[in-house]
Specification:
about 220 residues; mainly alpha; 7 helices
Length: about 220
Amino acid sequence: MIPMLSEITIPQGLTLASTLVFGFLLGLRHSLEPDHLAAVSTIVNDGKSFWRATLTGCLWGVGHTLSLLIVGGLIILFKFDIGQAVERLFELLVAATLILLGASALWRLYRHARTETPENGHGHRHKSRSLLVGMIHGLAGSGTLTILISSTISPPATAFFFLLIFGIGSISGMTVASLFLTLPLRITLFRFNVFHYFLRGFAGIVSLSFGSWLLLEYFAG
């Protein structure tokens, strides 16, 4: 979701270069919003590999950018209106995804603690999940972001390029964020097992709680 984009004003009179730099910084900031971090923290949950953490963040950003470009392109080029009802449906999907990711993380942790068997990496499934979660988050915010820039930036080609630069900022921000989220898990993996499992459980609880809060907010609205 992009809960704060409605409060953002793109400055008028910027040069093309300044506009694109602003788009990159906006994408960077957007990637660090709480629901995004909550989702990715459950995917980098075991902290076994910095490479996998980098790939997780990168694929989340790629999925997020794909959604923005597809839906955003339709809005910018064809004045396509996805409608508030559809946007709210995407937001509901984000809430459900966070709940599922949190519950899955807690279940994996419980199963591992109970059986004390090594966890499988499931590399291909892990990559697909990162990409899919990023796409879901991108869908939830695409309408708001695109309407914001299409009403401010012209011609359409520049607005579309702004979306692309915004996506690159999101990819960069989430890649770095994934590394930082993995760092404490990696440090505690071999020496402080209790704290390591606490961090993993905490990430699952945060994702589950955040998703539940978004779900309540959705039905309350």
